[in-house]
Batch of 2 targets.
Target 1
Amino acid sequence: GESVGLHLPTLSVQEGDNSIINCAYSNSASDYFIWYKQESGKGPQFIIDIRSNMDKRQGQRVTVLLNKTVKHLSLQIAATQPGDSAVYFCAENKRDDKIIFGKGTRLHILP
Amino acid sequence: EPEVTQTPSHQVTQMGQEVILRCVPISNHLYFYWYRQILGQKVEFLVSFYNNEISEKSEIFDDQFSVERPDGSNFTLKIRSTKLEDSAMYFCASSATGQGNNEQFFGPGTRLTVL
Protein backbone atom coordinates (compact mmCIF):
# COMPACT_ATOMS: atom_id res chain seq x y z
CA GLY A 1 0.00 0.00 0.00
CA GLU A 2 0.96 3.64 -0.14
CA SER A 3 3.00 4.93 2.74
CA VAL A 4 4.81 8.11 3.57
CA GLY A 5 6.30 8.37 7.00
CA LEU A 6 8.79 10.14 9.20
CA HIS A 7 11.56 8.64 11.28
CA LEU A 8 11.16 10.63 14.48
CA PRO A 9 8.00 11.93 16.15
CA THR A 10 9.90 14.69 17.99
CA LEU A 11 13.03 16.72 17.28
CA SER A 12 14.59 19.31 19.60
CA VAL A 13 17.00 21.84 18.15
CA GLN A 14 18.87 24.78 19.63
CA GLU A 15 17.78 28.16 18.31
CA GLY A 16 20.13 29.22 15.54
CA ASP A 17 21.18 25.68 14.66
CA ASN A 18 20.12 23.88 11.50
CA SER A 19 17.26 21.35 11.66
CA ILE A 20 17.00 18.23 9.57
CA ILE A 21 13.71 16.35 9.41
CA ASN A 22 13.67 13.03 7.62
CA CYS A 23 11.00 11.07 5.80
CA ALA A 24 10.81 7.75 3.97
CA TYR A 25 8.36 6.62 1.34
CA SER A 26 7.56 3.19 0.01
CA ASN A 27 6.25 3.67 -3.52
CA SER A 28 9.09 3.95 -6.01
CA ALA A 29 6.64 5.36 -8.57
CA SER A 30 5.97 8.42 -6.38
CA ASP A 31 6.99 11.56 -8.20
CA TYR A 32 5.85 14.65 -6.32
CA PHE A 33 6.52 15.40 -2.66
CA ILE A 34 5.61 18.29 -0.41
CA TRP A 35 6.61 19.43 3.04
CA TYR A 36 3.92 21.01 5.20
CA LYS A 37 4.19 22.93 8.45
CA GLN A 38 1.33 22.79 10.94
CA GLU A 39 1.29 25.22 13.82
CA SER A 40 -0.93 24.65 16.80
CA GLY A 41 -4.59 25.26 15.97
CA LYS A 42 -3.96 25.82 12.28
CA GLY A 43 -4.20 23.88 9.07
CA PRO A 44 -1.19 22.51 7.15
CA GLN A 45 0.82 25.20 5.41
CA PHE A 46 2.82 24.50 2.25
CA ILE A 47 6.57 24.97 2.72
CA ILE A 48 8.31 23.52 -0.30
CA ASP A 49 7.83 20.81 -2.89
CA ILE A 50 10.05 18.67 -5.11
CA ARG A 51 9.51 16.46 -8.12
CA SER A 52 11.25 13.18 -8.75
CA ASN A 53 13.31 14.61 -11.62
CA MET A 54 15.17 16.72 -9.04
CA ASP A 55 17.30 15.77 -6.06
CA LYS A 56 17.46 19.15 -4.36
CA ARG A 57 15.35 22.27 -4.15
CA GLN A 58 15.95 25.39 -2.11
CA GLY A 59 13.62 27.99 -0.72
CA GLN A 60 14.01 30.71 1.82
CA ARG A 61 15.95 29.07 4.70
CA VAL A 62 14.62 25.64 3.67
CA THR A 63 16.07 22.93 1.47
CA VAL A 64 14.47 19.67 0.44
CA LEU A 65 16.61 16.73 -0.59
CA LEU A 66 15.27 13.70 -2.42
CA ASN A 67 17.16 10.42 -2.63
CA LYS A 68 15.21 8.17 -4.95
CA THR A 69 17.64 5.28 -4.57
CA VAL A 70 16.77 4.80 -0.92
CA LYS A 71 13.34 6.47 -1.14
CA HIS A 72 14.23 9.12 1.37
CA LEU A 73 13.25 12.76 1.68
CA SER A 74 14.58 15.40 4.05
CA LEU A 75 13.76 18.96 5.01
CA GLN A 76 16.57 21.17 6.18
CA ILE A 77 15.80 24.41 7.99
CA ALA A 78 18.71 26.80 8.33
CA ALA A 79 19.24 28.96 11.43
CA THR A 80 16.17 27.64 13.21
CA GLN A 81 14.01 30.31 14.83
CA PRO A 82 11.30 30.13 17.54
CA GLY A 83 8.67 30.60 14.85
CA ASP A 84 9.75 27.33 13.28
CA SER A 85 8.19 25.41 16.18
CA ALA A 86 5.50 23.26 14.60
CA VAL A 87 4.69 19.79 13.37
CA TYR A 88 6.23 19.06 9.98
CA PHE A 89 4.66 16.58 7.57
CA CYS A 90 6.12 15.12 4.46
CA ALA A 91 3.44 14.30 1.95
CA GLU A 92 3.00 12.85 -1.47
CA ASN A 93 0.71 14.56 -3.94
CA LYS A 94 -0.73 11.76 -6.04
CA ARG A 95 -1.50 12.14 -9.73
CA ASP A 96 -5.19 11.95 -8.86
CA ASP A 97 -4.71 15.12 -6.77
CA LYS A 98 -5.18 13.74 -3.27
CA ILE A 99 -2.40 14.31 -0.75
CA ILE A 100 -1.08 11.43 1.31
CA PHE A 101 0.43 12.72 4.54
CA GLY A 102 3.04 11.15 6.75
CA LYS A 103 2.71 11.09 10.52
CA GLY A 104 4.60 14.26 11.34
CA THR A 105 7.62 15.36 13.36
CA ARG A 106 7.16 17.92 16.11
CA LEU A 107 10.05 20.40 16.06
CA HIS A 108 10.92 21.98 19.41
CA ILE A 109 13.19 25.01 19.45
CA LEU A 110 15.36 25.29 22.54
CA PRO A 111 16.39 28.80 23.69
CA GLU B 1 -3.66 37.35 0.77
CA PRO B 2 -6.62 35.11 -0.10
CA GLU B 3 -7.27 32.25 2.29
CA VAL B 4 -9.60 29.35 2.91
CA THR B 5 -11.98 29.95 5.79
CA GLN B 6 -13.97 27.43 7.81
CA THR B 7 -16.87 27.65 10.25
CA PRO B 8 -17.44 26.86 12.99
CA SER B 9 -14.01 26.59 14.56
CA HIS B 10 -15.37 24.09 17.08
CA GLN B 11 -18.52 21.97 16.87
CA VAL B 12 -19.78 19.81 19.69
CA THR B 13 -22.56 17.35 18.94
CA GLN B 14 -24.27 14.30 20.36
CA MET B 15 -23.70 10.89 18.80
CA GLY B 16 -26.27 10.23 16.10
CA GLN B 17 -26.81 13.89 15.27
CA GLU B 18 -26.17 15.44 11.88
CA VAL B 19 -23.48 18.08 11.47
CA ILE B 20 -22.59 20.37 8.60
CA LEU B 21 -19.10 21.79 8.39
CA ARG B 22 -18.70 24.83 6.21
CA CYS B 23 -15.86 26.09 4.10
CA VAL B 24 -15.30 29.06 1.83
CA PRO B 25 -12.53 28.16 -0.62
CA ILE B 26 -10.31 30.72 -2.32
CA SER B 27 -12.53 32.48 -4.83
CA ASN B 28 -10.90 31.55 -8.14
CA HIS B 29 -10.13 27.96 -7.18
CA LEU B 30 -11.90 25.10 -8.89
CA TYR B 31 -10.88 22.04 -6.88
CA PHE B 32 -12.02 21.44 -3.34
CA TYR B 33 -11.05 18.89 -0.75
CA TRP B 34 -11.85 17.68 2.74
CA TYR B 35 -9.28 16.07 5.02
CA ARG B 36 -9.52 15.01 8.63
CA GLN B 37 -6.98 14.65 11.43
CA ILE B 38 -7.76 12.58 14.49
CA LEU B 39 -5.95 13.97 17.53
CA GLY B 40 -2.25 13.13 17.43
CA GLN B 41 -2.47 11.36 14.09
CA LYS B 42 -1.72 12.25 10.51
CA VAL B 43 -3.93 14.19 8.15
CA GLU B 44 -6.12 11.84 6.06
CA PHE B 45 -7.73 12.52 2.70
CA LEU B 46 -11.53 12.24 2.64
CA VAL B 47 -12.80 13.54 -0.68
CA SER B 48 -12.03 15.74 -3.66
CA PHE B 49 -14.65 17.70 -5.57
CA TYR B 50 -14.61 19.35 -8.98
CA ASN B 51 -17.24 20.62 -11.37
CA ASN B 52 -20.02 19.90 -8.88
CA GLU B 53 -19.19 16.27 -8.42
CA ILE B 54 -16.92 14.05 -6.36
CA SER B 55 -13.63 13.29 -8.13
CA GLU B 56 -12.33 10.80 -5.63
CA LYS B 57 -13.15 9.61 -2.12
CA SER B 58 -11.35 7.52 0.45
CA GLU B 59 -12.56 4.49 2.37
CA ILE B 60 -13.34 6.78 5.28
CA PHE B 61 -15.88 8.70 3.19
CA ASP B 62 -18.77 6.27 3.52
CA ASP B 63 -22.51 6.77 3.05
CA GLN B 64 -22.69 8.87 6.22
CA PHE B 65 -20.67 11.60 4.53
CA SER B 66 -21.69 13.94 1.75
CA VAL B 67 -20.34 17.12 0.21
CA GLU B 68 -22.08 19.95 -1.52
CA ARG B 69 -21.34 23.27 -3.14
CA PRO B 70 -24.70 24.94 -2.51
CA ASP B 71 -23.73 28.27 -4.07
CA GLY B 72 -20.79 29.96 -5.71
CA SER B 73 -18.77 30.38 -2.54
CA ASN B 74 -19.48 27.66 0.04
CA PHE B 75 -18.35 24.06 0.17
CA THR B 76 -19.87 21.88 2.88
CA LEU B 77 -19.23 18.51 4.48
CA LYS B 78 -22.22 16.79 6.06
CA ILE B 79 -22.06 13.87 8.43
CA ARG B 80 -25.56 12.40 8.72
CA SER B 81 -25.33 10.42 11.93
CA THR B 82 -22.16 11.18 13.84
CA LYS B 83 -20.22 8.50 15.68
CA LEU B 84 -17.72 8.92 18.49
CA GLU B 85 -14.90 8.06 16.12
CA ASP B 86 -15.83 11.01 13.89
CA SER B 87 -14.28 13.31 16.49
CA ALA B 88 -11.39 14.99 14.71
CA MET B 89 -10.16 18.17 13.07
CA TYR B 90 -11.67 18.58 9.63
CA PHE B 91 -9.71 20.62 7.11
CA CYS B 92 -11.01 22.04 3.90
CA ALA B 93 -8.57 22.79 1.08
CA SER B 94 -8.77 24.25 -2.39
CA SER B 95 -6.52 24.51 -5.40
CA ALA B 96 -6.63 26.37 -8.66
CA THR B 97 -6.10 23.21 -10.69
CA GLY B 98 -6.05 19.50 -9.92
CA GLN B 99 -4.05 16.62 -11.32
CA GLY B 100 -1.54 16.61 -8.50
CA ASN B 101 0.54 19.51 -9.70
CA ASN B 102 -0.91 22.46 -7.94
CA GLU B 103 -0.64 23.69 -4.37
CA GLN B 104 -3.58 22.97 -2.12
CA PHE B 105 -4.34 25.70 0.38
CA PHE B 106 -5.74 24.55 3.70
CA GLY B 107 -8.21 26.25 5.98
CA PRO B 108 -7.73 26.51 9.76
CA GLY B 109 -9.98 23.53 10.42
CA THR B 110 -13.12 22.73 12.38
CA ARG B 111 -12.70 20.71 15.55
CA LEU B 112 -15.60 18.25 15.76
CA THR B 113 -16.29 16.68 19.13
CA VAL B 114 -18.88 13.90 19.26
CA LEU B 115 -20.17 13.08 22.73
Target 2
Amino acid sequence: NAGVTQTPKFQVLKTGQSMTLQCAQDMNHEYMSWYRQDPGMGLRLIHYSVGAGITDQGEVPNGYNVSRSTTEDFPLRLLSAAPSQTSVYFCASSSQIGIGNTIYFGEGSWLTVV
Amino acid sequence: LAKTTQPISMDSYEGQEVNITCSHNNIATNDYITWYQQFPSQGPRFIIQGYKTKVTNEVASLFIPADRKSSTLSLPRVSLSDTAVYYCLVGEDNYGQNFVFGPGTRLSVLP
Protein backbone atom coordinates (compact mmCIF):
# COMPACT_ATOMS: atom_id res chain seq x y z
CA ASN A 1 0.00 0.00 0.00
CA ALA A 2 2.94 2.34 -0.69
CA GLY A 3 1.40 4.70 -3.28
CA VAL A 4 3.87 7.48 -4.14
CA THR A 5 7.21 7.29 -2.34
CA GLN A 6 9.71 10.14 -2.24
CA THR A 7 13.27 10.15 -0.98
CA PRO A 8 14.98 11.80 0.75
CA LYS A 9 12.56 13.41 3.19
CA PHE A 10 15.03 16.14 4.14
CA GLN A 11 18.17 17.43 2.41
CA VAL A 12 20.55 20.34 2.87
CA LEU A 13 22.65 21.34 -0.10
CA LYS A 14 25.34 23.92 -0.67
CA THR A 15 24.94 26.36 -3.51
CA GLY A 16 26.20 24.81 -6.73
CA GLN A 17 25.81 21.21 -5.64
CA SER A 18 23.67 18.83 -7.61
CA MET A 19 21.34 16.14 -6.34
CA THR A 20 18.46 13.92 -7.34
CA LEU A 21 15.11 13.62 -5.63
CA GLN A 22 13.71 10.16 -6.12
CA CYS A 23 10.06 9.35 -6.76
CA ALA A 24 8.47 5.95 -7.24
CA GLN A 25 4.86 4.84 -7.54
CA ASP A 26 3.43 1.34 -7.44
CA MET A 27 -0.01 2.04 -8.92
CA ASN A 28 1.01 1.58 -12.57
CA HIS A 29 0.08 5.19 -13.29
CA GLU A 30 1.09 6.64 -16.61
CA TYR A 31 1.13 10.25 -15.45
CA MET A 32 3.71 11.56 -12.98
CA SER A 33 4.70 15.06 -12.04
CA TRP A 34 6.83 17.18 -9.74
CA TYR A 35 5.61 20.26 -7.89
CA ARG A 36 7.34 22.70 -5.60
CA GLN A 37 5.62 24.53 -2.78
CA ASP A 38 7.07 27.62 -1.18
CA PRO A 39 5.90 28.75 2.29
CA GLY A 40 2.28 29.90 2.28
CA MET A 41 1.95 29.29 -1.44
CA GLY A 42 0.19 26.83 -3.65
CA LEU A 43 1.93 24.14 -5.65
CA ARG A 44 3.71 25.00 -8.88
CA LEU A 45 4.27 22.39 -11.56
CA ILE A 46 7.93 21.82 -12.46
CA HIS A 47 7.91 18.92 -14.92
CA TYR A 48 5.54 16.15 -15.82
CA SER A 49 5.48 12.90 -17.76
CA VAL A 50 2.61 11.12 -19.49
CA GLY A 51 4.48 7.86 -19.84
CA ALA A 52 7.86 6.21 -19.96
CA GLY A 53 10.20 8.09 -22.28
CA ILE A 54 7.97 11.19 -22.41
CA THR A 55 8.52 14.32 -20.33
CA ASP A 56 7.48 17.94 -20.63
CA GLN A 57 7.97 21.22 -18.82
CA GLY A 58 5.53 22.72 -16.40
CA GLU A 59 5.27 26.23 -15.01
CA VAL A 60 8.73 26.50 -13.36
CA PRO A 61 11.17 24.10 -15.08
CA ASN A 62 14.39 26.14 -14.99
CA GLY A 63 17.17 24.55 -12.97
CA TYR A 64 15.55 21.11 -12.94
CA ASN A 65 15.90 18.04 -15.11
CA VAL A 66 13.75 14.91 -15.30
CA SER A 67 13.73 11.59 -17.08
CA ARG A 68 11.24 8.72 -17.18
CA SER A 69 12.91 5.44 -18.07
CA THR A 70 10.28 3.28 -16.36
CA THR A 71 6.61 3.66 -15.50
CA GLU A 72 7.39 3.47 -11.80
CA ASP A 73 10.17 6.05 -11.39
CA PHE A 74 10.38 9.77 -12.07
CA PRO A 75 13.51 11.35 -10.56
CA LEU A 76 14.00 15.12 -10.35
CA ARG A 77 17.54 16.42 -10.74
CA LEU A 78 18.77 19.74 -9.48
CA LEU A 79 21.67 20.61 -11.75
CA SER A 80 23.34 23.39 -9.73
CA ALA A 81 21.41 24.16 -6.57
CA ALA A 82 20.56 27.78 -5.76
CA PRO A 83 19.03 29.27 -2.59
CA SER A 84 15.89 30.08 -4.64
CA GLN A 85 15.32 26.34 -4.93
CA THR A 86 14.81 26.01 -1.20
CA SER A 87 11.31 24.58 -1.07
CA VAL A 88 9.19 21.52 -0.42
CA TYR A 89 8.96 19.22 -3.41
CA PHE A 90 6.03 16.92 -4.07
CA CYS A 91 5.88 14.11 -6.54
CA ALA A 92 2.48 13.06 -7.84
CA SER A 93 0.95 10.43 -10.09
CA SER A 94 -2.40 9.67 -11.66
CA SER A 95 -4.00 7.35 -14.13
CA GLN A 96 -4.31 8.87 -17.56
CA ILE A 97 -7.53 7.19 -18.42
CA GLY A 98 -11.05 7.65 -17.21
CA ILE A 99 -13.27 10.17 -15.54
CA GLY A 100 -12.38 11.14 -12.01
CA ASN A 101 -8.70 10.29 -12.10
CA THR A 102 -7.28 11.35 -8.77
CA ILE A 103 -3.83 12.85 -8.35
CA TYR A 104 -1.91 11.01 -5.65
CA PHE A 105 0.85 12.90 -3.90
CA GLY A 106 3.94 11.78 -2.06
CA GLU A 107 4.76 13.00 1.44
CA GLY A 108 7.17 15.65 0.21
CA SER A 109 10.90 16.32 0.24
CA TRP A 110 12.16 19.32 2.20
CA LEU A 111 15.16 20.87 0.48
CA THR A 112 17.30 23.67 1.88
CA VAL A 113 20.03 25.28 -0.21
CA VAL A 114 22.55 27.31 1.74
CA LEU B 1 -6.59 27.40 -18.09
CA ALA B 2 -9.55 28.39 -15.95
CA LYS B 3 -8.40 30.62 -13.12
CA THR B 4 -9.92 30.06 -9.72
CA THR B 5 -10.54 32.44 -6.85
CA GLN B 6 -11.05 31.28 -3.28
CA PRO B 7 -11.02 33.03 0.08
CA ILE B 8 -7.54 33.02 1.53
CA SER B 9 -8.67 31.93 4.97
CA MET B 10 -11.72 30.93 6.99
CA ASP B 11 -12.37 30.24 10.66
CA SER B 12 -14.98 27.89 12.03
CA TYR B 13 -15.88 26.11 15.24
CA GLU B 14 -16.13 22.43 15.86
CA GLY B 15 -19.46 20.94 14.88
CA GLN B 16 -20.33 23.64 12.37
CA GLU B 17 -20.87 23.18 8.67
CA VAL B 18 -18.26 24.92 6.56
CA ASN B 19 -18.86 26.09 3.01
CA ILE B 20 -15.91 27.18 0.86
CA THR B 21 -16.79 28.80 -2.43
CA CYS B 22 -14.56 28.85 -5.48
CA SER B 23 -15.10 31.13 -8.45
CA HIS B 24 -14.10 29.96 -11.92
CA ASN B 25 -15.74 32.29 -14.42
CA ASN B 26 -13.77 30.99 -17.41
CA ILE B 27 -14.46 27.30 -16.90
CA ALA B 28 -14.44 25.36 -20.16
CA THR B 29 -16.93 22.77 -21.33
CA ASN B 30 -14.54 19.87 -20.69
CA ASP B 31 -13.33 21.08 -17.30
CA TYR B 32 -14.00 19.24 -14.07
CA ILE B 33 -13.91 20.80 -10.61
CA THR B 34 -11.75 19.02 -8.06
CA TRP B 35 -11.01 19.81 -4.44
CA TYR B 36 -7.93 18.74 -2.54
CA GLN B 37 -7.04 18.97 1.14
CA GLN B 38 -3.54 19.54 2.45
CA PHE B 39 -2.45 19.12 6.06
CA PRO B 40 0.79 20.71 7.25
CA SER B 41 3.88 18.83 6.14
CA GLN B 42 1.88 16.51 3.90
CA GLY B 43 1.04 16.29 0.23
CA PRO B 44 -2.46 17.24 -0.92
CA ARG B 45 -5.08 14.54 -1.00
CA PHE B 46 -8.20 14.26 -3.15
CA ILE B 47 -11.53 15.13 -1.49
CA ILE B 48 -14.16 15.32 -4.19
CA GLN B 49 -14.69 15.95 -7.87
CA GLY B 50 -17.69 17.01 -9.92
CA TYR B 51 -18.87 18.33 -13.25
CA LYS B 52 -22.33 19.71 -12.49
CA THR B 53 -25.13 19.71 -9.89
CA LYS B 54 -24.29 18.00 -6.62
CA VAL B 55 -21.80 15.34 -5.66
CA THR B 56 -21.58 13.79 -2.22
CA ASN B 57 -19.18 11.32 -0.68
CA GLU B 58 -18.33 10.24 2.85
CA VAL B 59 -16.17 13.32 3.42
CA ALA B 60 -17.87 16.27 1.72
CA SER B 61 -20.43 17.59 -0.74
CA LEU B 62 -19.78 19.64 -3.82
CA PHE B 63 -22.42 21.99 -5.16
CA ILE B 64 -22.12 23.27 -8.72
CA PRO B 65 -24.75 25.64 -10.15
CA ALA B 66 -26.03 25.30 -13.68
CA ASP B 67 -23.71 27.95 -15.11
CA ARG B 68 -20.68 26.20 -13.47
CA LYS B 69 -18.97 29.53 -12.85
CA SER B 70 -18.56 28.71 -9.20
CA SER B 71 -18.63 25.74 -6.88
CA THR B 72 -19.02 25.24 -3.14
CA LEU B 73 -17.28 22.63 -1.04
CA SER B 74 -19.36 21.76 1.99
CA LEU B 75 -17.82 20.06 5.02
CA PRO B 76 -20.46 18.86 7.49
CA ARG B 77 -19.80 19.18 11.20
CA VAL B 78 -16.10 19.99 11.08
CA SER B 79 -13.69 18.87 13.73
CA LEU B 80 -10.25 20.14 14.76
CA SER B 81 -8.71 17.60 12.40
CA ASP B 82 -10.29 19.36 9.42
CA THR B 83 -7.90 22.28 9.90
CA ALA B 84 -6.04 22.33 6.59
CA VAL B 85 -5.63 24.16 3.30
CA TYR B 86 -8.29 23.41 0.71
CA TYR B 87 -7.56 23.80 -2.99
CA CYS B 88 -10.09 24.21 -5.76
CA LEU B 89 -8.81 23.02 -9.12
CA VAL B 90 -10.45 23.37 -12.49
CA GLY B 91 -9.17 21.58 -15.53
CA GLU B 92 -9.66 18.82 -18.03
CA ASP B 93 -9.64 15.32 -16.66
CA ASN B 94 -6.80 14.45 -18.95
CA TYR B 95 -3.39 13.47 -17.59
CA GLY B 96 -3.65 16.08 -14.86
CA GLN B 97 -1.21 18.52 -16.36
CA ASN B 98 -3.87 21.15 -16.74
CA PHE B 99 -4.48 21.31 -13.04
CA VAL B 100 -3.08 24.47 -11.49
CA PHE B 101 -2.93 24.86 -7.73
CA GLY B 102 -3.63 28.35 -6.41
CA PRO B 103 -2.89 29.43 -2.82
CA GLY B 104 -6.01 27.65 -1.55
CA THR B 105 -8.19 28.42 1.48
CA ARG B 106 -6.67 27.98 4.90
CA LEU B 107 -9.43 26.64 7.17
CA SER B 108 -8.90 26.91 10.91
CA VAL B 109 -11.31 24.96 13.08
CA LEU B 110 -11.45 26.26 16.62
CA PRO B 111 -12.64 24.36 19.72
